[in-house]
Design goal:
heterodimer, A: alpha/beta, six-stranded mixed beta sheet, four-stranded antiparallel beta sheet, 9 helices, 10 strands, 16% strand, B: alpha+beta, six-stranded antiparallel beta barrel, 17% helix, globular
Chain lengths: 297, 411
């Protein structure tokens, strides 16, 4: 078996374990490449039946239009049950402070909406597209990651996880976060997308876009960011290497219009995937670890 | 040069590094990643922090938690990935400290190879013995003993030879075989990804060569049929073939119980197929009125699968919060089957201090190994681990805490 077969098999096995061990799982889907890959794997894992769980989008309201329309068309195409919960509503309900600054990211606030939705629907397993090679805190997380009653990750006391014997036993208020594509690299994801002919939002391929140049990064012009007179605005050919909020995801300069060109480009890139595109990881050395302690993915 | 998007016929090798706290595990992984061009610039910048002269702190590449970076030690397993033109590699960086042996066991389960680091200036330590115990317990198929820090031992062949002789005795005691010895300096890069100019007396492979050529653990297509049933819905049976092969029209047996059923349909990879082999995740439809459930194992008719409620196993205790309690009800999970059962006898306990001894009168607590006998309330299907690994291993779950408290090898 080549490496893509092995990774696919591992993910299919994990998804079937979720179906076999839990009463009410949900798969998180944002319209990005990793969660789109997860949906493909879940459809494959349960063929010829439909996948036995619904999908959920935690919507920050700062989405790329292309990702949203892609989300809706994929949901329609495969007749998936989509649940959307909005950070906007959580902010109103809990009277939370809207983030300020030039790039007001609601990224960290997503955890509140996610935890509320988990308790609203009584989800016991939440499947996500996190990969260990993305970030150093993620590199340490188990495939079945136990979260306590407050949704927090307990990095110092993780449950032993041996072979493929995933232990999904939990107490009533706890939940398991499941990461079926933990062992995939960015390149594996793209090679598999090519092999399986998986469709992605157009954002992942080169297109002309008006951006603000900020700290060597290109941030798309949108109504969600604060523009000021000093901004350097350019229109150039870019693509997205990761797709998150418009406020905290930067584009990369690119002319890669096909999957092969994208694979060539990331193979040659001297920068890591999140390092090049995520403004939320750069806040501190332990940005991701801190968010995970508060219930983040 | 071959373009990477065309290069998808690679396989995957999973390996783990084990060594005492300062034997240089994390440094070795940093070195492997750096020398194979698998560390991106922004990550490189972030690990220069903490070194005043701007040198790269190789160990920081794997220590992902704040507490680990502050204390300078590895607490839990971290996974790292790199690719060469030969292979994709999954590295498990595991803690060296005795206290975290349970995390080492997590990281070492399922690897194709283990690298045990020995500090050439210190020699074989208690940690070396424990790491070797773990390799022996888990039946890790390939072992590298890396005699590290040879730069601090004058690159002296005699130092290497002495340690090799000493380790051979441990290997014999633990029945470890397939061992490769490599003299190394992870810090300086000797024999990591290129031959050492300082140790021309060593004629063997460097570590990367070894890893690129090391045999991976493939599932046995020629073995007896084993299908682990994971999930059943509307008559569709989802599971993985872990051994042997299966054809439509043939008959399978459920848990060695005497109940046979004909295979009507096999789905694999979105299509209906006529046969499936080890490694395939399949969906089956059987011609039978008998229920098939998660936890069942399907075999050929007249197979030698064991199906019993009394058996022996090797055990490693993984729970810091409790000791093994005799005759207490635990959940015992073997493949996808879950039954309630008790450990009713400790046959022998393996004690590792300055050497390895066997004793049976001590309680079993975290990071300790024993041979035990188990009784389960209902029968459970399994194989001898030495024949079919996937159906010969299990975990023991504490019913109060839900923790994975023990690892079981059925042999």
């Amino acid at each position: 078996m080549n490496h893509l077969d092995v990774l696919e098999s591992e993910a299919v096995y994990i998804l079937r374990e979720v179906a076999g061990q839990f009463k009410n799982p949900v798969l998180l889907f944002s319209g990005g490449k990793d969660s789109t890959l997860l949906i493909h794997l879940a459809l494959k894992a349960f063929y010829p039946l439909p996948m036995p769980f619904s999908v959920m989008h935690i919507d920050t309201g700062h989405n790329f239009e292309e990702a949203l329309s892609f989300r809706d068309s994929l949901v329609k195409q495969h007749n998936l049950q989509l649940v959307v919960r909005k950070v906007e509503d959580t902010i109103k309900l809990k009277n939370l402070e809207e983030p300020g600054g030039k790039f007001p990211s609601r990224n960290a606030l997503q955890s509140y909406t996610l935890l509320d939705a988990i308790s609203e629907f009584q989800y016991d397993a939440i499947i996500g597209g996190g990969r260990r090679d993305e970030e150093k805190a993620r590199a340490k997380e188990r495939i079945f990651s136990v979260r306590d009653a407050s949704g927090a990750w307990l990095p110092h006391n993780q449950r032993p996880e041996l072979w493929d014997l995933y232990n999904g036993q939990i107490h009533a208020d706890e939940q398991i976060r499941v990461f079926p594509i933990s062992n995939w690299s960015e390149l594996d994801v793209w090679q598999y997308i090519k092999q399986e002919k998986i469709e992605l939002p157009s954002l992942y391929f080169a297109h002309e876009r008006q951006c603000i140049q900020f700290n060597k990064r290109l941030v798309a012009m949108s109504e969600y960011i604060m523009q000021d007179a000093a901004d350097v605005i350019i229109t150039t050919s870019v693509r997205y290497r990761t797709v998150g909020d418009m406020t905290c995801t930067a584009a990369v300069e690119s002319t890669a219009r096909t999957i092969d060109e994208v694979i060539d480009e990331i193979s040659a890139s001297m920068l890591s995937e999140r390092g090049e595109t995520r403004m939320d990881d750069q806040i501190s050395d332990a940005g991701m670890e801190d968010r995970k302690l508060k219930g983040y993915f | 040069m071959q373009r990477l998007y065309e290069k998808i016929a690679m396989d995957i090798l999973r390996f783990i590094t084990a060594g005492s706290i300062d034997d240089g595990k994390s440094t070795l992984i940093g070195r492997l990643l750096l020398d194979t061009g698998n560390i991106k610039n922004d990550i490189l910048e972030s690990v220069k922090a903490g070194k005043e002269n701007g040198d790269v702190n190789l160990a920081f590449i794997t220590d992902g938690l704040r507490a680990e970076r502050l204390a300078g030690i590895t607490i839990d397993v971290a996974y790292k990935y790199f690719t060469t033109h030969q292979r994709k590699f999954i590295i498990t960086d595991a803690p060296g400290h005795f206290h975290y042996t349970k995390n080492l066991v997590t990281g070492a389960s399922g690897v194709d190879a283990m690298i045990i680091l020995i500090d050439a200036t210190i020699g074989i330590s208690m940690q070396t013995l424990i790491h070797s115990m773990v390799a022996s317990f888990l039946g890790i198929p390939n072992l590298v003993v890396a005699i590290n820090k040879m730069d601090l031992a004058g690159y002296d062949e005699a130092v290497y030879s002495l340690l090799k002789t000493e380790y051979n005795q441990i290997a014999e005691q633990l029945k470890l075989d397939n061992i490769t010895y490599i003299p190394m300096s992870a810090l300086e890069g000797d024999n990591v990804t290129s031959p050492s100019v300082n140790m021309t007396w060593y004629k063997g492979d460097n570590l990367l060569q070894y890893l690129e050529e090391c045999k991976t653990s493939e599932l046995g297509e020629n073995g007896n049929l084993r299908i682990i049933v994971q999930y059943v819905a509307n008559g569709f049976i989802y599971g993985r073939v872990v051994s042997g092969m299966l054809q439509t029209g043939s008959h399978v047996n459920i848990n060695g119980s005497g109940i046979n059923a004909a295979v009507k349909t096999i789905f694999h990879n979105y299509i209906e197929v006529n046969e499936a082999t080890a490694g395939h995740d399949i969906c089956l439809v059987l011609e039978t009125d008998q229920p098939v459930n998660r936890g069942d194992i399907l075999t050929n008719v007249n197979d030698n699968l064991q199906y019993t409620n009394e058996f022996e196993a090797d055990l490693c205790w993984l729970d810091e919060a409790s000791e093994l309690e005799l005759n207490k009800d635990y959940k015992i999970r073997i493949a996808s089957a879950e039954v309630t059962g008790q450990i009713n006898e400790i046959i022998s306990k393996t004690v590792v201090d300055s050497s390895i001894n066997y004793d049976s009168n001590e309680p079993i607590s975290v990071n300790e190994f024993a041979r035990v006998s188990i009784r389960t309330n209902n029968k459970v299907a399994f194989d001898n681990f030495n024949q079919i690994k996937e159906t010969g291993r299990g975990i023991l779950i504490d019913r109060d805490t839900n923790n994975t408290s023990g690892a079981l090898i059925l042999r």
